[in-house]
Amino acid sequence: MEPEAGTNRTAVAEFILLGLVQTEQMQSVVFVLFLFAYLVTIGGNLSILAAILVEPKLHTPMYFFLGNLSALDVGCITVTVPSMLGRLLSHKRTISYDACLSQLFFFHLLAGTDCFLLTAMAYDRFLAICRPLTYSTRMSQTVQRMLVAASWTCAFSNALTHAVAISTLNFCGPNEVNHFYCDLPQLFQLSCSSTQLNELLLFAVGFIIAGAPLVLTITSYIHVAAAVLRIRSVAGQKKALSTCGSHLTVVCLFYGTGIFNYMRLGSEEASDKDKGVGVFNTVINPMLNPLIYSLRNPDVQGALWRIFLGRRSLT
Question: What is the spatial distance between Cα 272 and Cα 275, in angstroms, rounded to a whole number?
Answer without folding.
Answer: 5
